[in-house]
Fold these 3 entries.
Entry 1:
Amino acid sequence: MTEEALYHEALVRLGRAAHGAGRLALADAEATADNPLCGDRATFRVRLREGRIEAVAHQVRGCILCLASASLVGRAAQGATPGEVAEARSRAAALLLEGKPAPAGAWADLALFQPVGGVPNRHACVLLPFDAIAEALQRAQAPR
Amino acid sequence: MTRDLLARLRSDVAAKRPVVLATVLATGEGRLIHPFDDSGASDPLLAEARQAAGRDQSGVVETPAGEVFLRVFNPPVRLVIVGAVHVAQALAPMARLAGYDVLVVDPRRSFATEERFPGIPLSHEWPDEAMARLGLDRRAAVVTMSHDSKIDDPALAAALRSQAFYVGALGSKKTQAARRERLRQMGFGDADLSRIHGPVGLPLGAVSTGEIATAILSELVGCLRRPVGAAGASA
């Protein structure tokens, strides 16, 4: 796998677009996930309204794969239900591990990560933002 | 020295603020000069105090009012090691023995562990965040050695924006060239880039991690102690 194939232009563009990057006033919950092997770190904040994600924001330090994944999550999770985000994580894992196709619709850009499938030690870079938002959503829905 | 003066001196030392105690030898009268603050700007001995603090060397100066002893109280030199790698495992305790405040920063938690760095202060922040929190001054040194540009580059950028007296970057000549190009893209110019010691350390032909750490620490000491202009000479 060459670097050019892994960090292809559309993926780099998605990462640089940084959809959803920033902080969120009045978040219901936040969560941080990090990768102890490479140092990547993603913090997600979410606000729920009537069972849907009304607002999502993230602050990420990491490689371009992690940034691109966070950018996709920051865009596609907007308006989604927590269940849809969990489903998207399953689809991302299936795409990386088993070469399954990306879903249609809001998460179609998961297809951009297809080359990462051949590089097992980078799968975590893509999945880290999903883990962070999953934890944030769980906390947001926890009874207080 | 009055009790009040001692209290102020102790509070400056506790705050790690560089301060010079100026004592008129004939009378024993003392005052504090902050050589790098605005508050010290009006003192007639500012230039001498600044020089003494810069060299970290106390001494007597002649003035029209007689001899004055300038006693330097500098905060400890702080060394920020970015990347909890093998060379860092040697460099951190060596720098501590030299009397420096050492911090090893690595967001990779599996590298920066107590087992690998017993007794050494560790941070899992990203290095630029750690440096912003610490506030690097002219008594600070930064050496990057994570071997990952996504960690080293922001650390070097933060170091170059600070007054750190020593900035070193581990890596081959080829790595250094690519790094310089990336830092240029971030807006740094030749004057900034010339502050980076890279390849890092004195040219000792060091091979083992302990030897590489020796070369780095030696270069750092030279930059700290040798008069300006002589620091680049071979040792």
Entry 2:
Amino acid sequence: MKDLVFEAKDIYFSYLGKYPALNGVHIHIERGQKIAIIGANGSGKSTLLHLLDGLIFAQRGTLKAFGEELKESQFNDEEFSRNFRKKVGLVFQNPDIQLFCPTVKEDIVFGPLQLGIPKHDIDERLDRLVHILGIEDLLHRSPHQLSIGEKRKVAIASTLIIDPDVLLLDEPTAGLDPLTTRHIVDLLLEENLSGKTIITSTHDLHIVAEISDLIFVFSQDKKIVRYGPPEAILEDIALLKDHNLVHIHRHRHKDKVHTHPHVHLEHHVPAEHQGEEESPVD
Amino acid sequence: MFGFFTPGEAWVSFKIGGLKVTLTRQGILGAALFVMRVTASVSFVVLLSITTKHFELLRVLRMFKMPSVFVMIFGMCYRYIFLLVEIVENTYLAIKSRVGTSVHYQKGQHLTAWNIAHLWLRSYQMNDDVYKAMRSRGYQGEVLVMNEFRTRLRDWLWLCFVFLLSMLVMVFNFHAKI
């Protein structure tokens, strides 16, 4: 029997009762999987992550977490709430929302303090994480003084310190430089190797193949239009184009200008499979 | 300062609309003392705020047993005020880039009103999002914070020095005659 962490059946959610954000979503996520959720802006990716984190609740359909149906009333029970928050951590899309304490250090330790994790464990985890993320120098600074990359690292640290079994990340690499993106991807892969389930919402197709075993593609209808392994999804250029996930990219190779969909696959080798065009430089 | 508030030795007298107004020596000295005290108090507050990190001030509030929820709210106000100021600045820059510097005052009032409404909506949305972010990390209505403030020998020495200085000032004040 599969060890499911999340099981959603026909989930429906709308904002203010009139703006649909999810429209009949089915999803099964197994323990230890790497999942990527891709889709255009406003396709419901963030809403799904908020549902999975028990911050909002489905208006129709059922969502089970760790085999138990998630309902708003359950979160009134402190014990249930604390156990759930220890198991599931969310890195928000906007780090300014997530970093609300006066200093970086207070922000990072906020979660474990609320969850009753012993102080010596918090100190150990803090030391390990700040070392891995290279944010030792930021601990006594105020979050508003940080760059976007630093804020994202601190936001990730503030969730990872809880040591959740399931890590939800809402566009963790948006607006980051390539090296910082690399650090974050490496960190996510390490966390997955240690047994964590990683669920990432992104439009960053550079990283999708690495951070996923399974991709869910959301459409503008707020539904999952397709799911499958990265090699199958990322090679389906028509699907990606239909959902605003690729554009036509034009760049130079020595004396030739080369045109192909911007998908970061191995387009340079099997040129005949990618429908690319080459033309001499003007 | 005026004779009808602080009677005493008349210093200057003049008439305003047929009404005789007298400034007394005691009144002027009292007003000067008041202004100096306000100036000194404001200066100390400014000095404290520019020489001490805001999160240390918040820690001191916790030490004085102010409820942690109030301290948390102060901290968040300070944290988010920068973000809101940035939103206002960016909105004004966006307006400036599209309409230039000179706008008819009625249009200006209209833009300002929209800006205030927009800011209110943004802060309301942010309030909801921050609450979600807090809940996501285990917040259940009561804030638990790390208390790392430790007093050291130099803190106690400084406290003794300040106490002695205050006593000396009080003694001097008691004996001094103005």
Entry 3:
Amino acid sequence: MIKNFLTFKIFILIIAFCLIQFFSTNSYGVDPEEILQNQKLELRARNISKNIRCMICQNQSIDESSAPLAKDLRILIRNKITEGNSDKEIYKFLTDRYGDFILLKPPFKLSTLALWLLPFVFLLIGIFIVFWHNKKSKKI
Amino acid sequence: MKKQFLIFPSVLFLSILLIFLYLLIIDRNPTELPSTLLNKKVPKFESESLFKEKKFVSSDVFGEKIKLVNFFATWCKPCRDEHSYVKRFSNQEGIEVIGINYKDNSQKTISWLKELGNPYSNIAVDKNGRIAIDWGVYGIPETFVVNSKGIIKYRHVGPITKKIYKKINLIISEIE
Amino acid sequence: MAPYLGNFLLWLSLFFAISQFFVSKKNKKSKFITISVIGLLISSLFSFFLLMYSHVVSDFSVLNVFQNSHTTKPLLYKISGTWGNHEGSMLLWILVLTIFNYFIFKLYNEKNSIFVSKALETQAFITIGFILFTVFTSNPFETINFAQADGLGFNPILQDPALAIHPPLLYIGYVGFSAAFSISIAVLTLENNEKISWSSYMKPFVVAAWTFLTIGIAFGSVWAYYELGWGGWWFWDPVENASLMPWLLGTALLHSLITVDKKKSLQSWVLLLSILAFLLSVLGTFLVRSGILTSVHTFALDPSRGIYILAFTAILGGYSLILFGLKSKKYFNNNYFSFFSKEGSILINNILMVVVCSSIFLGTIYPLLVEAFTNNKISVGEPYYNSTVVPIMIPAILIMGIGPILSWGKGDMLKTFKKIFPSILLTLIITLFIFLFYQSYSLIGVVGVVLAIWIISNNTIILFQKRSNLSNGMIVAHLGIGLLILGITGSSVWQEEKIIQMKVNNEAKIKEYNIVFKKINEIKGPNYFALQGDFFVYDKNKNIITNLQPENRFYPVTNSFTTEVSIHTNLLRDLYIVLGEGNLNDGWIVRIYYNPLVVWIWIGALTIFLGGLISMNNNLKKLKYSS
């Protein structure tokens, strides 16, 4: 019993420690000359880019693609970041011109409500089925 | 209740197939994107004009008659292929064709147009591609139809083919 | 000569399929049905070989060979070129259908002739559908009249050993589910089959299908990893999803078949699953070939083909699902089992697999739905699947550790905890070690590593305990999943990348490695020219590790460029280097990736495959003894 409890405490401590240490690894820039000096801003640029679809590639983000349009958009995003625009404003700028298609993470809208909610609904239905089956079969 | 529940999978399945059937039957290009600028005003921009001394100012250019806007470049082969159709449009009464030279060398463009003929009443130079981004252009050549009030009515991505030529003419006849 | 014979044999196979369909209605293992089954197999086999022959000898009078081949293609790719195009791949589908058809036929014994005949009737119907589609819309034996000196060549990216074997493995998977489907239909249609242990018939097919689907998907991913140039191996591309969905349902089916076998529980559920698994396989075929969406994977776009497959899927799906709706009631039973039991954990696994599959299905078709109902187009990319699929997989993996050791009916919690305690301890200790050593934490990384070690330690301990009541195949396959998760976590969470401009003799540092750009070479291959970079990799002690040689290739025949990545692999990480654009004066853009633990993805997949093979072997033995 004592052994179990000690292990449990250590376990909790480790998890807490890991959670505190939560940070992602460094990533270096895309094209050498595009990289912003400010690391924080560059990270923002990378994260936004990873969510923007390369329109002329197949299923790639502009962060990964070597296409010219991808590069232009990467530079545009970095310019807008350094000019002080928020992530939201930058996304709006892009979707105003290219539509929601350019976002790899589908937006939260009325038309995508089903898309985002249904997986949870499926999960709930699944859990319900497990309980229902259990209840029903217990009676017998 | 149970029977209805059991029929549900087949109903769901067949409805999904019907939607697929619908998508197959309509005339659609899976790679083409609908423009977000449809029925909106032309994006405001200013740039150098290729031939004219005066700057190309969008508010001066759009809003008089029906204009076609053609994004093109000398290094783009499909642009060359569609050029005869662009010329045909420029010869039509009542419409003008505006060219936007995308990420190109101006000298090369001038020779290219000399060789193939210049259908454009005015050409804006888009050296860094920002004008194209403002128009939501992603693959040149792209052609837009703008009505006499400066509202974008149609966009086609890719070279103009016989089919598209007819389609654009149809659209032009329907708008003002 | 060859194409005409091949075409004749294709029509002959149609004849045999139709005859099998009608003769099977006689409900016995007659001479006629034997002739139909064997005839179907042989005619489709030879038809396939004749297409392959045409490719190998570069017979350009055959349209299919002309469009997809070239005299300079290496022999291996001439062979694999047979199925590397739409029409040829349909011929492969048909061949595998006839092979599985034969195995269904082999199930015949004195007691089950009505049952097996019904299954053969269904299988014949499916085969007829595919052959009709092939001969009328996608005939590979079409000839052209004018003599051609050479073919139109073949996409150089596809000239690859992993990609060559990828389709046959996948098709064994998809078609294997057709056999399970046919067996389900037989169960649902026939009234009097209490004595038939149909689940023991279904099992070997499901295990075979699942096993080969696993390795087929893995080959596709490993190809994407070393071919596409940015270290990714899964893109949630619609066609990739189309292979993953049957796999998920297959996993569920694999597990619930056990409860049917042992406890006669979840029977109607299993019948539904096997129908859905095959329907998704056929629907996947539709997605790839119909032109409804584009992807790197899609074959030529042709809506008329799409309409045919859609109609065929509708018939199969409508019939099977309505049949299920009407007839499955008698397979409902209410055997009680608690959550905390083997059946309970299997049911939970099934639910989670189906939820994940439904989410992936939703994400894949949602853009099409939006397009159909609004004027808008949206994308559903990786972020969506990461938010929906990954969280659900976590409990599934956790349960995977406990499920196998739970007892049937009702498990004893204390007893189970005692059994599992060594694994929990081992997991914690090893995880602690890893993070002390590796010093880089992120929440999802920790979760991934804990899950991986949990599964690996569980199954290694079980292996050492040599429990005779647990199937070895299962243990090995589960172990493989643990290794797979380790690889997935490492490569996704801790990948590092460096992109710099390098001239000859420049150096770059990544992690503890020093990479020197020694030389640039011009080389010539069998059907390409290439610019090759010579990069020497040194560790922190200045010892040379390897010489990486990425290339940029030009294939004159198709006028296309490819980049060939160069990779150095060890158990801890991959060093992955790509040569970008450049020239002698300015230097080249070089992309260097440090991908931790990637190799464990492939080792894991192979281990799963091995587990599947062991299980197949055991199932076949059992089947022989029971009949």
